[in-house]
Amino acid sequence: MNPQAVVLPSEAPSPPGCEWVPDPIELLVPPPTDLPYDDGEPLETPWHRSAMNLLIDSIACHFREREDFYVGGNMFLYYRQEQWGEEDNRPKFRGPDFFYVSGVERRRPRLFYAVWDEQGHYPNVIVELLSPTTEKIDRVDKRALYQDTFRTPEYFLCQPQVNTLEGLRLNEHQVYEPIKPDKRGWLWSDQLRLWVGPWKGTYLGETTTWLRFYNESGRLILREDERMEQRAEQEKQRAEQEKQRADAAQQNAEQEKQRADAAQQNAEQEKQRADAAETEMTRLRRELEEMRLRFPKSPE
Q1: pTM score > 0.85 for this model?
Q2: In this structure, what CATH number is given to the domain that contains residue 11?
Q3: Engineering a disulfide at 14: which of 96, 110, 151, 202 sits with its beta carbon 3.0 to 4.6 angstroms away?
Q4: What is the span of the domain harbouring residue 273?
Q5: pLDDT tens series, the chain, 300 aa
């Protein structure tokens, strides 16, 4: 097996777009391809599992026309392949609840996400769904990792049922600083060009508050099933409107026919009256003529 070059992360600030451009390091062995992709541990709660899928499905649907991104969650994200000979040479990984990467091939099958297989592309956006057992790690360890190693431009932290929502963005010094919420409590994502905020509704049979995305005008970013349901509803409304227009046209036609029938009936009645008047005039003329014949004028 031929050795190949592997791009490793450096500690230098990343250029815009969350793309690393370090000097390649030639390794004597190729990067591993049989890395673990599942630790068998379930997510904290059903809300965590559903909320993660909701975010992923929404972004996948929103960018459905694009092929230059990848969105995932609760999968191993390998970010460093250690060199052989080090004390701990196992690849380093994390498992963000939600992550979005721009500039990579969307359709390529992945059991895990390895940065060295993705031309050095780290996530542009990461969302962690907090829990009592992970909050400290998310706020301290992962924050430092995402800031200093990943250089992920935006990092969001959300408590269950969106009791709190926080956002961090890399500043010009490559240090996270808080994203200021708007009056609705929503946070703007420069990377996604979308708002991030709470949404009260039903998903997978559970009615609660979920974390959702909104476009610039505040319209909810739909999942594929919601989009298809909306399209079906729109088609149903259009069909109903067409039926209403057809019914109105038929009603108008019937009214026009009734007016035409009434006009014809009036014309026939007028004709009957005219015929009766003509008959009566003929009769009167005949009687007048008979009277003239019966009572001729006396000569003067």
Answers
A1: no
A2: 3.90.1570.20
A3: 151
A4: 223-294
A5: 333 333 333 333 444 555 544 444 434 345 666 665 554 444 578 999 999 999 999 999 999 999 999 999 989 999 887 644 455 566 688 999 999 999 999 999 999 999 999 999 999 999 999 999 999 999 999 999 999 999 999 999 999 999 999 999 999 999 999 999 999 999 999 999 999 999 999 999 999 999 999 999 999 999 999 999 988 888 888 888 888 898 888 889 899 999 999 889 998 998 999 898 889 889 888 888 888 887 777 666
- The type of residue at 111 is L
The residue type of 161 is Q
